[in-house]
Write a structure and sequence with these properties.
Radius of gyration: 21 Å
Strand content: under 5%
Distance between the termini: 39 Å
Largest sheet: none
Number of helices: 16
Shape: globular
Mean pLDDT: 82
Number of strands: 0
Helix content: over 70%
Length: 438
């Protein structure tokens, strides 16, 4: 009975996988095609390698959120200055990502990802030394350099997933990258809090180790498909991008806004929670604070992976899930206006519902955006999208900090309004139908 059940599960998994690309490439090279079992194992390892990139990206940022109050105290800096440790990293990455996207289309995905991971990890060590020397200046410069490295990581991994897989496997891979991104957000506050028990800046030195593991996975587990034609010159390339934006700009720009808004809210709320949990009436600190921060993110992770596995490029289903996700965000954040200072349990529950809405939204946007263009322009389009997402992350902490100084209610009135605006725009402009990407 157990053997039969295992066999059915294996067949179900393999039925989703498109082996044609790998088989054609091997046959052209004169090798015998792999068996289904070998291909299945290869896909699993590819999934692990791709998922490691957004995971490492998040660890290098979110792991620092729990230690920001300690950093303020130890270095004698303001709340705004500590928020720049997150913001400057994200702004730099957001500005450089389109360049990295073009270079990945011009050359190859791995040619950009590998040096980017090296820069990302190396600058992390320098940031740790800056903390050891009590030098805020060194930390900030290192974080800016890390942002340059980050620009060539997760956004390019998203484009590579679109290159490697077709049909349902592409949406599953993209859902996994979003789930991995969310899993990093779940683990990182806990991990950052645990490392801070050793010394407050331990997270800076721990991160490069995870970066090295991802670098090795990308180098040895991912085999990028060969380009079918020579890349166009820069002028032609930019004209093609302009034509795509002209033809599909209404829903693409709306999708870009919705994705960046969701990340703005998510990181802003993390910053907000990290700050208020340590003071009265909660007095939650250390690992316990990391666990509380992880609760809403866990809802996002589970939802993201499930959504990516179910949508299978079904445009009608994606439209439903996008609207449901934005409704959940709008309603739950709106209720936070009333309950943010009444019950911590209700408050965390509402934030978890908002994160579940984000988990419904992002995998659908990822699949639509990567499926909207051909491989030759995919790096740039996904990079423009990722750039705006990074800017959403960048401005979350400082703007939330500024609004918190004015009024806590203003925080939730603002994010509710943004979610409602995204819902209205998405309802009228994001209308996928049939199969996405053909």
């Amino acid at each position: 009975m157990e053997k039969a059940k295992t066999k059915k599960l294996r067949i179900a998994f393999e039925s989703d996988i498109d082996y044609s690309a790998a088989t054609d490439e091997q046959t052209a090279g004169g090798d015998k095609p792999n068996t289904a079992e070998t291909s299945r194992k290869g896909v699993i390892w590819e999934f692990i390698a791709i998922a490691s990139v957004p995971l490492v990206l998040v660890l290098g940022n979110s792991m620092l959120v729990p230690i920001l109050p300690d950093m303020q105290e130890r270095l004698g800096i303001s709340q705004f200055q500590s928020s720049l440790v997150i913001t400057l990293f994200s702004v730099t990455a957001g500005l450089v990502i389109p360049i990295a996207g073009y270079l990945s289309d011009r050359f190859s995905r791995k040619a950009i990802m590998i040096p980017s991971l090296i820069i990302y990890g190396g600058a992390g060590i320098l940031a740790g030394l800056g903390a050891l020397w009590n030098s805020y200046t060194v930390i900030i410069i290192s974080r800016a350099v890390q942002g340059i490295g980050a620009a060539g990581t997760a956004p390019i991994a998203m484009a590579l997933a679109g290159d490697l897989y077709k049909e349902g496997m592409e949406s599953k891979a993209l859902g996994l990258t979003e789930a991995s991104n969310g899993a990093g957000k779940v683990v990182s506050p806990i991990l950052g809090s645990l490392l801070a028990l050793i010394v407050w800046y331990a997270a800076f030195f721990a991160f490069p180790f995870f970066c090295l593991l991802s670098l090795l996975a990308v180098m040895f587990l991912l085999k990028e498909p060969k380009k079918e034609q020579a890349p166009p010159k820069l002028g032609e390339y930019l004209r093609n991008i302009g034509a795509i934006l002209k033809q599909k700009g209404r829903w693409l720009i709306t999708s870009f806004f919705a994705g960046s808004m969701a990340l703005f809210v998510l990181f802003g709320v993390l910053f907000y929670l990290s700050d208020i949990l340590e003071v009265a009436p909660y007095h939650i600190d250390g690992v316990m604070k990391g666990l509380v921060l992880a609760i809403p993110l866990l809802g996002m992770v589970v939802t993201s992976y499930t959504t990516g596995s179910l949508i299978k490029k079904n445009g009608t289903l994606m439209r439903w899930l996008i609207n449901i996700g934005l409704v959940l965000m709008t309603v739950s954040l709106g209720l936070c206006i009333l309950f943010y200072n009444r019950s911590i349990y209700v408050f965390i529950g509402l934030l978890t519902l908002s994160s579940i809405g984000t988990g419904l939204l992002l995998p659908c946007l990822n699949t639509m955006i990567t499926g909207s263009v051909e491989r030759e322009q995919r790096g740039m389009i996904t990079s423009l999208y990722s750039s705006l997402r990074f800017l959403g992350v960048a401005f979350g902490p400082p703007l939330f900090g500024w609004m918190m100084d004015k009024s806590h209610q203003i925080v939730f009135i603002t994010v509710t309004s943004l979610s409602f605006l995204a819902l209205i725009l998405g309802f009228f402009f994001i209308k996928p139908q049939g199969k996405i990407g053909g």
